[in-house]
């Protein structure tokens, strides 16, 4: 990896698209982007959480071995984690692992295929895989679903399939695995925070305040947090930037109380500026379009 530019902190997440605490870290990362803007650069290394569920074992949560039993225990674990991190989780109908599909490696390789094509779309794709896995109980380790999600975010499906199935993405994933081993990132998420030649490792889910303290230490005050007032305009700008947003992400970015968050969402819904989409034990909000809009990136028109 190359060193960062002057006055830019790089945060590299060693991750897996189906890691619940990586899912739970999304609000923190979005708050960092909102508060520090171009002073922070966030990127992802695919670490491959589950090579084969039948030989994997998480003793703390009793996950591994039999796929059906693992699915039930994963759903339970995700619901418990959701109570802490606040991101939506769909536990009912969760059946990701089977004898035929025992791994999360396909999702990791799919991200690398997207990254070969376009970094911006790749990050959008990673988020979409996380949503589909955690909040929609989709079988994201199947090629059919991965292609569907790739098309949704505007990737060239033919090129995606070429890179996904013919070795280019696999090779890139193996390089990520080597980097993961080099930094001894054995649990996910693990974050490498770097400023110039200085870097430190943060293991596990971290609060925004922990990132901020580490960034201030590494930069010796060279970068500055920008507080954003929780105006309707600012909240809508946040929603438009990320398109699909869980309430906790808005709440964290703007330091809102539960009551303030509910009031903001209710107001935006009343003004028909956003739409609400139920998702498991929570929901997402997105900008509302008042008429048919055609997205040149995806080639899709929607009402």
Keywords:
four-stranded mixed beta sheet, two-stranded antiparallel sheet, Arc Repressor Mutant, subunit A, globular, Glutaredoxin, 2 domains, 47% helix, 303 residues, 12 helices, single chain, alpha+beta, 10 strands
Structural class: alpha+beta
CATH fold-level assignment of the largest domain = Glutaredoxin
Number of domains: 2
- CATH homologous superfamily assignment of the largest domain: Glutaredoxin
Mean pLDDT: 94
Quick one: overall form?
globular
Give the helices and strands as they follow along the chain: EHHEEEHHHHHHEEHHHHEEEE
* CATH-derived architecture of the largest domain: 3-Layer(aba) Sandwich
Strand line-up across the major sheet: 2-1-5-6
Tell me the radius of gyration: 19 Å
Quaternary state reads single chain
Counting DSSP E segments of at least 2 residues, the number of strands comes to 10
By CATH reckoning, the class of the largest domain would read Alpha Beta
The biggest beta sheet, please? 4 strands, mixed
Strand content: 15-25%
Report on this model:
The protein has twelve helices and ten strands. The longest helix has 19 residues, at 67-85. It folds into two domains: 9-182, Glutaredoxin (3-Layer(aba) Sandwich); 232-302, Arc Repressor Mutant, subunit A (Orthogonal Bundle). The protein has helices at 20-24, 26-36, 67-85, 105-117, 119-134, 143-152, 157-165, 168-182, 208-219, 232-242, 247-253, 258-270; strands at 9-15, 40-46, 57-58, 63-64, 190-195, 198-203, 274-279, 282-287, 293-295, 300-302. The N and C termini lie far apart (43 Å). Strand 7 and strand 8 (282-287) form a beta hairpin.
């Amino acid at each position: 990896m190359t060193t960062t530019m002057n006055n830019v902190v790089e945060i590299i997440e060693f991750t897996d698209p189906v890691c619940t605490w990586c899912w739970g870290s999304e609000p923190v990362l979005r708050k960092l982007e909102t508060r520090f803007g171009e002073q922070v650069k966030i990127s992802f290394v695919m670490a491959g959480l589950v090579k084969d569920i039948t030989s994997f074992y998480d003793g703390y949560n009793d996950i591994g071995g039999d796929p059906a039993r693992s699915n039930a225990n994963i759903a339970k674990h995700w619901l418990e984690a959701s109570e802490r991190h606040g991101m939506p989780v769909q536990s009912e109908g969760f059946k990701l692992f089977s004898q035929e599909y025992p791994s999360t490696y396909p999702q990791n390789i799919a991200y690398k295929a997207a990254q070969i094509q376009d970094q911006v779309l790749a990050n959008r794709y990673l988020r979409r895989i996380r949503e589909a896995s955690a909040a929609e109980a989709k079988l994201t380790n199947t090629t059919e679903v991965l292609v569907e999600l790739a098309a949704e975010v505007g990737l060239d499906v033919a090129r995606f399939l070429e890179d996904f199935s013919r070795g280019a993405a696999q090779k890139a994933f193996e390089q990520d695995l080597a980097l993961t081993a080099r930094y001894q990132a054995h649990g996910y998420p693990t974050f490498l925070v770097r400023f110039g030649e200085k870097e430190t490792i943060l293991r596990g889910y971290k609060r925004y305040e922990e990132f901020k303290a580490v960034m201030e230490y590494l930069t010796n005050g060279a970068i500055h947090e920008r507080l954003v007032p929780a105006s309707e305009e600012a909240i809508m700008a946040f929603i438009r930037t990320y398109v699909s947003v869980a309430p906790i992400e808005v709440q964290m970015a703007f330091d809102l109380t539960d009551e303030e968050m509910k009031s903001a969402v209710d107001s935006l819904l009343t003004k028909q500026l956003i739409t609400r989409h139920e998702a498991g034990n929570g929901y997402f909000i997105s900008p509302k379009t008042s008429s048919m809009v055609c997205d040149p990136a995806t080639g899709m028109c929607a009402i």
